[in-house]
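Table S4 entry, Response regulator transcription factor.
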Amino acid sequence: MHLLLIDDHPLFGAGFAHALEVVRPTVRVRTAPTLDAGLKLAAADDRLDIALIDYRLAGENGLAALASFGRRFPLVARVLITGEDVRHLVCQARAAGAVGCLGKQHSAEAILAALERVLDGGECFDEPDGARAPAAPVASATARQMEVLALIAKGRLNKQIADQLGIAERTVKLHITALLQAFDARNRTHLLVKAREHGLL
């Protein structure tokens, strides 16, 4: 099993890689502190099976980073990892293209078992009692809308968002309208408040 961990905490990355490789010596784990570094490693490794991306990635929205990675490497399975309560992230992670969402508190054995399910074509979402978490208001949000939301949180104007994502400004407005409806938000400021309430920012 060849894994890529994108996490900006070097001690966690080193410990994660060591723990998994000790439990199963055939596992290979490469680590990257940023999305850009992870993309470069992925481009150089055609054996990569799964990319694990931290939700609280410095300088990036982990969900947007997960979606960006998927556009570059659609055949690599993506799993969101987090030190927070994952129940509020399951729907967002699915919408961003993840096949799993795991808490960092799990043992190496449990993480490996979950990743084995992914290799077998399954999913590995942490959900209470094995049940699917209740649908969140953002369950229908697309990966592109997640990116727009992340840029709104950074204070970008519609034209700046359009330029950065390479889309028309009118399309940005449509994405924002869809986000306002999904979150039942009155305006951009209220949208950010609601997004934070749902653990999206």
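The chain is about 50% helix and 15% strand.
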